[in-house]
Known about the structure:
Largest sheet: none
Radius of gyration: 43 Å
Distance between the termini: 142 Å
Structural class: mainly alpha
Amino acid sequence: DDLGASQTKEDLLMLLAEADKQLEDSLQVQDGQRARAEELEKENIRLRSQLRQQSEGVLLMEAERNISDNEQLSHFINILRGRVQKPDCLTPQHDSQVVQKS
């Protein structure tokens, strides 16, 4: 009877040791996963920041290009206005038609 109780006690101690080992292994895996999640979160933050900076750079370049395009268009319009407002911009053919009508 003592032998059976002793065997059962040993079996229970072995099961307890095995459960303790599995718990320890599980906690180590969990710690590793937590550390990896923290690394991924830091990488995510870094990449979001980099993307925001690149997006701002692209928007700035686009705005600068639009300003340049607008300046060129404004210059062209001013040239056309100057030509339209000058009376000497009439072509020789147009001048002769005006003279003939008088």
